[in-house]
Amino acid sequence: NAGVTQTPKFRILKIGQSMTLQCAQDMNHNYMYWYRQDPGMGLKLIYYSVGAGITDKGEVPNGYNVSRSTTEDFPLRLELAAPSQTSVYFCASRIGDRGYNEQFFGPGTRLTVL
Amino acid sequence: DAKTTQPPSMDCAEGRAANLPCNHSTISGNEYVYWYRQIHSQGPQYIIHGLKNNETNEMASLIITEDRKSSTLILPHATLRDTAVYYCIVRSSRGSQGNLIFGKGTKLSVKP
User: Fold this and answer.
1) Interface test with B, best of A105, A109, A110, A111 (most B CBs within 10 A)
2) Strands A87-94 and A64-66: what pairing?
3) Residue B11, class by beta-carbon neighbours within 10 Å (0-12 exposed, 13-18 middle, 19+ buried)?
4) Which of A95, A101, A110 to probe the B interface (max B CBs under 10 A)?
5) How far is CA A67 from the centre of its chain?
6) Over the stretch B10-54, which tens digit does the pLDDT of each residue have?
7) How far is A14 from chain B (nearest CA, A)?
8) What is the phi/psi pair of residue A63, to 5°?
9) Which residue, among A111, A98, A104, has the nearest Cα to A37 in the 3D structure?
10) Which A residues, 73 through 102, put their C-beta within 8 Å of a C-beta on chain B?
């Protein structure tokens, strides 16, 4: 298994541009998450999904959108990029609502907005 | 979810045991203690979790006090590759979100 994969690894955007961060997992996990991590800080939840067709907002959803048309894929869309969205973005997945909560993380996408 | 308190940084000599403490005095009965680590620029990696009993796996041991208000992650023979930020997270076993709430963690530096 490839686990959780993310593309691209790095990206520089100009203010006002848009882009989609890709995330895919091949573990047949139901739950998927998008986090962002600012320098020196912990991760903050942007959006999550408990299954195909179901998404919900996390702690910091403004400026982002997501979709979940398949179990495998969970893309994150940035509309009208702003410097405040400069961060490292991590996608994660877990199997579902079981007693424990082992999450598998992707390698991250480092985004800079200038 | 219960809040956790960890020291911001620790040093450990290579080959020695690294003991990372975590306080979670407001933990409730259905909350697990999870440990993750993040090696520089990589995604967080799951290490271990526990509810009441001490746990051990191939990576580490987790010691939880009897009152469950604190825990210690033990890396028995730290190597340079264990240099990372270690996060202690307390989370309910149920819930529609299931996301992990990351604080700033403990930056462990393993020195030769």
Assistant:
1) A105
2) unpaired
3) exposed
4) A101
5) 11
6) 999 999 999 999 999 999 888 889 999 999 889 999 999 999 989
7) 23
8) 90, 0
9) A111
10) 88, 90, 92, 94, 97, 99-102
Band (B102; pLDDT cuts 50, 70, 90): confident
User: Whole-angstrom Cα distance, residue A108 to residue A22?
Assistant: 10
Give me the amino acid identity at A58: G
The length of chain B is 112
- What whole-number distance in Å separates Cα of residue B70 and Cα of residue B34? 12
| Residue A108 touches chain B, beta carbons under 8 Å | yes
Residue with tokens 């869309």: A77
